[in-house]
Amino acid sequence: MRGTCWTVNTRMDCEQCPIRVFCLASQHGTAAILPVRKPRPTLRDRYFHYTVYRTPDGMTLLHQRTGKDIWQHLYEFPLQELSTPDSRLLAPNSRLSTFTHILSHQRLHVTFTQKEVEKLPQIDGCFPTRWNELQNYALSRLTLKFLDQIS
To answer: What pTM does this model have?
Structure first.
């Protein structure tokens, strides 16, 4: 019977293996069918809609993520997460950027909507900051990708 020898990562006969006496696969006669590859986890789809507000004097809104979700403690633009895509969130007079961002167990469908406003809206959990100070905040790779695209 031939199996994969974990000590040298090559194929060899179990009878010649130096750790055969400790090997459970050899003792149970299953060395030929190992290793068993774990199935890839199913990707969960999530739909993120960011609104990027900008004022003429260079202000924008950010908030810090909390909870035990992705990007915990990182900063991002105001976010609305939905369970399905919703094209009604896409304002006709706005500039849009869309991304699909894949994590190990999630597929994020992301839309950034840029809105030029005279005054920033009051949104719970959000705070104003200067656009040119965004580099002072810990941002997700996705947010940095968006910022790279628009600069």
So the answer is: 0.70
Overall size of the chain counted in residues: 151
Summarised one tens digit per residue, pLDDT across range 92-150 is 556 788 888 888 889 999 999 999 999 999 999 999 999 999 999 999 999 999 999 98
Q: What angle do CA 50, 54, 58 make, to 5 degrees?
A: 140
Give the DSSP H/E element, type plus range, for residue 28: helix 24-28
**Virtual CA dihedral for 141, 116, 86, 128, nearest 10 degrees?**
50
C-beta of residue 100 within 8 angstroms of C-beta of residue 109: yes
Between CA 141 and CA 134 the distance in angstroms is 13
- Separation CA 75–CA 46 (nearest Å): 18
